[in-house]
Design a protein that fits this description.
Distance between the termini: 34 Å
Radius of gyration: 30 Å
Strand content: 5-15%
Shape: elongated
Strand order of the largest sheet: 1-2-3-4
Number of helices: 6
Number of strands: 4
Helix content: 55-70%
Low-confidence stretches: 102-107
Order of helices and strands: HHHEEEEHHH
Structural class: alpha+beta
Length: about 240
């Protein structure tokens, strides 16, 4: 009789422990879902700013500014530099003309104009290079922020193909090479998980993570579950 009571108490204690752990995992999953949604919203905003955003024309109204204050300020700044370079080029041209054998002859206006145009082209190229570098830095900063917030570093492969791929690496991965691969056929509205070594372990029948894709087809829930499983393995909750 005492043994039965002991077994019952043990089972009850184990049940409570499992239930407590389930509540922790559920709370963490909800928190990660909220973070993922916030990150997705920021990603859409960043892509729009970078000129790569997409939208549904039937449900979204796009309003274009007649005059962009930021671009006007940038244009004014670089126009000042362009004008200064033009003056320097004209001064250099006049100096060469005064030292040339044809003393007393003036440099044709068309020549000065072509030099000024060349200077403007060079400066526009410089502005374009600076803007590209600025976008590159902003995108790198955004990707690092997503990595710190969601715990996943995501790289896009074959972006111009009909089926771009995404390599996903977790901050809690045991090995540097552990990663997941997803394929996104443009004709479909959902992703496809590819058979990497890590995916085979997580999608096996005994893995609790696989249920979120097999039954619910939810990649956010799947990735949140992966985060909790890897985190659990490292911290031994």
């Amino acid at each position: 009789m005492e043994e039965m009571k002991s077994d019952q108490n043990t089972a009850k204690s184990e049940h409570e422990r499992v239930l407590e752990k389930f509540q922790k995992l559920r709370s963490a999953l909800m928190e990660e879902r909220a973070k993922a949604e916030a990150s997705e919203a920021r990603a859409c905003q960043a892509e729009t700013l970078a000129g790569k955003g997409s939208y549904n024309a039937e449900t979204t109204r796009v309003v274009h500014l007649e005059s962009n204050p930021l671009m006007e300020a940038i244009r004014e700044k670089f126009q000042t530099e362009i004008d200064a370079l033009k003056l320097q080029l004209e001064a250099a041209q006049d100096g060469r003309a005064s030292k040339s054998p044809s003393v007393g002859t003036s440099t044709p206006a068309s020549s000065r104009g072509s030099l000024g145009s060349a200077g403007a082209d060079v400066d526009v190229q410089k502005m374009h290079t600076r803007l590209k570098e600025r976008f590159r830095m902003q995108i790198a900063l955004f990707r690092e922020g997503v990595y710190l917030l969601t715990g996943f570093k995501i790289d896009m492969i074959d972006a111009d193909s009909d089926s771009p791929q995404f390599r996903v690496r977790s901050i809690y991965g045991e090995r540097e090479g552990d990663h997941l691969m997803f394929r996104w056929p443009k004709k479909k509205q959902t992703l496809e998980i590819m058979g990497t070594e890590m995916a085979q372990l997580l999608m096996s029948a005994h893995s609790p993570c696989s249920v979120y894709i097999r039954q619910y087809n939810s990649f956010p829930a799947f990735l949140a579950s992966v985060t909790m499983q890897l985190f659990d393995q490292q911290t031994n909750i």
